Structures are given as structure tokens and as C-alpha cells.
Amino acid sequence: MKRTKTKLFLIASFLLCILIAACSKADKNELFQQKLNSIDSTIEDGNTQKALKSLSALRKKARFPVQYLSIAKRELQLHSPVQALQSMQTGLKKHPDDPMLKAALTHTLLQEDRIEDAAAIAEALLGTSYAGIGTEALIQADKIKQTYRTPVPFWQEGFRLTGEHIFLENAAAMLAHQGEIAQAAALRSRIAKDEALRSPYFWSCLAYDMGNFQPVLDDLVYSLAYADMAGLPEHNPKAFEYARRHLLLAADASAGLGDMDQARGFWQMYVDRYADSSSEVFYNLAMTAPTQEEKAEILIDCISQNPGYYPAVAQYVRACSAIEAAHSQKNPLDEYLQSKDFYSLEMEKSLFVSSAFTLSAEEVLESAMNADKDDIRFELEEFRYRYVQPKNYTRGNGEMWKILEAHPHNPLVKAYARWYFASSGDFNACFGIDKADNHYEDAFYDGIRRAVQGYSTAALKNFAEAEAESRYRIPSAVDQAYIYDARNEPDMAIKFFSRAAELVPDKRTKSKMLYESARIYAERNGIAEAIALLNQSLKLDSENHRANVLRQKLIADGSVNRNAGLDTFLRIEMNPDTNTGMEAGQNSTAINPR
């Protein structure tokens, strides 16, 4: 009986303690609210100092985040931000993870222009309902310091809250700066499809960098519309500038899609819209012209506008050289027909094309050198016109040394001279020129030197080094192919001839590389492989005589004599007529032992 009474007593005592504790909590909360109400009355009476003192004392009674915020709110109303900040910081010591206290503290620091302090705690608001306050703090800090440290998620949060495109654009710009182009471009999808882009050129640049060309074309209408809405450039200079750039980007995107007609259309639109169109646009129109006559006319327009624009000058002069070379190689039949005032269709076409070149190469070069006396490329272009194209090496060698003496330390002149002497077969002169302090260029010419001297292993090592530089990738591959062929290593020779065929841009050289691979297959009785490659070769260049002869022979008897007409010799294979101008190292130099 005593045990039962004892148990009942203990249980009753426990329940009483719980009840007292609950009442105590309720009493404390109620007491806090009563004191807060009393302070409100003091505030209404206008006794500010007493109210602030009471709020400071009440801070010790606060237990929950909302209570600290209630105190801080009244302190701010009484224009005491320092005391309010103290209340919030005290609350954070007890509740360090509370987002409301962090947000209130960040906001108050911003109001007090303590931007750096606000930014220091702003990142803790990411993922909360108050991330927008953190975004404002971080952006303000970046603005003051002129930095770009606001994390991408905060920019995205700014867009979510406001719908302003600038936040999303900044997020994309940050990602692009970090090398995350794909993620940056993908942010565009967050803009509603029925909403006009505010910065179409910006998003088009990202799409273009991703190789996604169609959006560039789709968004051009926005850039042009914004420029047209402005009316005059001075009303909105940025809109006009972005429209200019977007047009050129659209042309490049069209070229990327393989639609050169559309690309030309955009370049022509650019010329029509902007009277001060750049030389580059005219040059692009010229290089994609459907006929030689139109190409000549546009090049003349380009040169007339800018006599010192090197790419146009080089193209025009080289085209003149080609026409002069064609005229100097007239066959007797053409001369006889012309003497009788009779012209074949081919003769009429040639005459029509040449008539479009109304400026002489000499006057174009003279105007260019007068326009820019310091550009050594024009002097080299004149040298090429007078001595390289007509293969006048006897006089050219002396003139080349004069140019070298006049510009002994110019790396472009030294590189050009090495190329020239190598192409003319004067290897002693080529190797006598000082190194250009360009590792890859020096490695390439060291490879030629080793090959000429018969050190094929060392030459292969040099060419392998030179391959790392884009200018020497093609000639190095070709040279290695011929060396392996001369060393009777057919598998390696085929490998490098195939690589060269993939790399070379022009069809004639590509056809030649395929022929070389086919020849090696044929020598090893790989008749089927050889014929397949020869078919590809002739498809690229139907006038490839050696490919045609070998194909007929293989089809006729299914065999080939390795030594028939394939005497080993050393020569330099050059392609002087590149579209981009005679820059040092731009032309393919290949050691060909066959």
C-alpha cells in the first residue's frame, strides 16, 4: 500500500513540474509581450531615451528570433540603427542559423551603407526566402569595388524575383568568364518564348561560340529592330553598334551553316545600311563572289576605300599575276585565232575577266606603300609580284638579300626569306639566315636542313615538333610522309599522306596526297585500295595526270612496277597562291623525294 502511494506521489509531482514549466514559458512569453507593449506606450509618449534603454534591457529577456527582431524593429523606428544591429547580432549568437535574423542584419547594414559588412554575410542567404537581399548586397559590393564576385546563383535569383534580363545576362557572363559556355548559353531558355530578348547580340555571341548558328540568325531581327526604333545613332549608340556587329555575326553564322549566298546577303545588307562599311566586309564579298569579274570589281572598291588594306591588295595583285601568266602562256592556235579577230569561248571568257582588272598591279602596290610606308608586307608583296610569280630567281635572290639587309631584325622578313630561298632551291641561302626565335619555325627549317643532309630520323623529330604550330601542321605532315616513303616505311607514309589529305584546303593538293597513298598501296599489290583512292583523287582533280595514268594501268593489268617513272629526287612543293596573303610560314613547304 505504501509503495502504491509513493508511486502516485512521484507521478503527480512529475506532472506538476511539467505544468509549472509550461505555465512558466507561457508566463515568460506573456511577460515579454507585456514589457514590449509598455515600451510602445513610452514611445507614443515621445520618451525616446527611456524607450531605447528599456529595449536594451528587454534584449536579455528575448528567447526567440522573432523577439530579437521585434526589439530591433522598434530601435530602428527610434533611429538607433547601432542599437538595432546589436540586438540582431545578439540574437544570431543564440540562433546562428536563423535566416530571418541574417536577412534583417544584411538589410540594415545595407541601409547604413556598410556594404562590405553586408556582403560578408550575404552568401549565407542563398537558398532561403531572403536570397534577394543577399543579391543586392553582393551586387552593391561589386559595384563599389569594381569587381565581379557575385556568385551566379544570386544573379539567377535576381532574375527570378524581378524578371529583369540584366540579372540573367550577368549570370551568363559570369559562367562564360569561367569557361562554362554551354551553361551560359543554356540560361537563355529561362526567358519566355513570347518575350522579346533585351540583349539579342549577347545571347547570339554565346550561341555562336557553342557552334549553334541558327539562333544567331533568328535573333538578328531584334537587334535590327532596336536600331531602327532609335532612328539616329546618337539616340541609342549601343543599339546601332550591336546591330552592326550582329549583322556580321549573322554572316559568319551563315558561313558556318554552309550557306554562302545567305552570308553574302548579310554582308551586302551591311554595306547598304552603313556608309562607312569596313574594308573587311568588302573583302569578304570579294572572296565569295560568284565570278572573277565581280571579285575584281569589289576588290577595286575595297582598295579605293582603303588603299592600305593588305588582304585586298594581296588578292588583287596575285589575281593580276595569274592573268599575266596565263596571257604569257598562249598557245599558237589562240594567237592565230586572235590575229584573225576570232575568239573562242574560253578566249572570250579570259578577255572578259582580264578587262575587269582596271587597275594595274604596279599602281595598286604603289598606292598601298604610300598609304602605309611602315608595313613591310607590301614590299614583300611587290617582291613576290616581280620575282616569285614569274620565277625570276636569278634577279630575285639579289633583291631578297637587299630586303634582308634593310630589315635585318624583322622576323617576318627573315621568315619570308627562308621560305623564298627554300622554294627556289637555294638551300645554302635558306640555312644561312639567322634563326627567327620562333621555336616551331626554327624546328621546321631544321627539319628541312636535316632532310637535305640525309639525316631522316633527326628530320622526322624536327617536323614532329613543328606540327604543334598550326602554320606548319600541313607542310610538316607532308614532309614526314615523303621521308617515310623514301625510307621504305609504307605504313607510316600512308598514315601521313592520309593526314595531309585531311588537312590541306585545296582540292588539287588533296588529290595529290591521295595519289601518293594509292601509289604505295599499288606497289604493295593493294590494288583495290589503290583504285578506290585514285577514284577519290580524280574526283577532286580530274586533271591529275599521274593519278589517271596509274588508275588505267592498274585496271588494265592489276599490277604496278615500283620503279617505273618513280625516280627518287628532292624538291620543294610550294603553294604560293593562298587566299589569306603571303604571311610568313603560311605556304606549304614539303620535301618530296619522288
TrEMBL record:
Classification via InterPro entries: TPR-like_helical_dom_sf, TPR_rpt
Taxonomic superkingdom: Bacteria
PROSITE patterns per record: PROKAR_LIPOPROTEIN (PS51257)
SUPFAM superfamilies: TPR-like (SSF48452)
Keywords: Signal
Secretion signal span: 1-26
Protein name: Uncharacterized protein
